[in-house]
TrEMBL record:
The keyword Lyase is assigned to this record: no
Residue ranges constituting the ABC transporter domain according to the UniProt record: 4-243
SMART domains given in the database record: AAA
Keyword Heme appears in the UniProt entry: no
Upper taxonomic lineage: Bacteria, Bacillati, Actinomycetota, Actinomycetes, Pseudonocardiales
GO MF term (any one): transmembrane transporter activity
Database matches in InterPro entries: AAA+_ATPase, ABC_transporter-like_ATP-bd, ABC_transpr_LolD-like, P-loop_NTPase
Cellular component per GO, a single term: plasma membrane
Protein name: Peptide/nickel transport system ATP-binding protein
Sorted UniProt keywords: ATP-binding, Nucleotide-binding
Source domain of life: Bacteria
PANTHER family noted in UniProt: IMPORT ATP-BINDING PROTEIN
Amino acid sequence: MPSAELDDLTIHVDTGRWSETVAEGVSLAVPGGRITALLGESGCGKSMVAAALTGSLPASATSTGQVRINGTAVQDRRQWRQLRGGTVGLLPQDGVTAFAADASVGAQLADLQRTYKAWSVEDACAAARYPIENFELYPKQHSAGQIQRAALAAALLPAPEVLIADEPTASLDMDTGYDVWVTLRAYADAGAAVLVITHDAPLLVETRVAEDLVFLREGRVVASGSRADMRAHADPYVQGFFRPFGE
Ligand SMILES: Nc1ncnc2c1ncn2[C@@H]1O[C@H](COP(=O)(O)OP(=O)(O)OP(=O)(O)O)[C@@H](O)[C@H]1O
């Protein structure tokens, strides 16, 4: 079974103008066949954790601790280059960053199909609910929700064993967002290790789509475990995610 793990990850960012520790001692596991949801208030470090899990931390960041993909520690850029795509895939928070600016989305999706020979463009677009009428458009000619779905199609095309999805439903209406969750669920059910960063707590609670939850606050994991354990957790920060829905 595929897996991704962080062990005692600390990330420090130093831009020259300011410096900050954005993740501290973060340990978490993303097992195959399950969806792990990473929750937390805005700015608490969720995207940085996603970047660490996909070898895409910004140049201003330094990190300590260990990232393991399928049980093997990843230590350098060369290893990340080999893992990206077919083994580890990232759906970035801003979908437009998944694409080059100067080619149509359709052409770039077709390239991914040719390179990886895994999913077909048609199947990936259907799963991501990306409207293929937009194929000829350049990335910036899409709406936020359209490019987010195109980026999901791009992330699925190589059929990564580990999929890290950063707010995949943030720009979507309820129905389309639900369909995307169904796709992610099916992808995990087929064996992939899936981590989803989300603010979509209502849907998560109602559909019970993710079995494992990790709560991040100010760069630290404050609680993690099964959905049932998290519902019973005493921490008010954790309970805040459930309370509005009568749970
Ligand atoms: N590319 C970057 N370079 C430097 N610092 C960054 C970068 N991206 C994020 N940060 C900083 O890292 C911290 C954590 O940001 P991050 O994007 O991980 O938060 P988040 O939990 O994903 O927030 P949101 O829910 O709003 O997307 C913030 O203080 C932010 O300013």
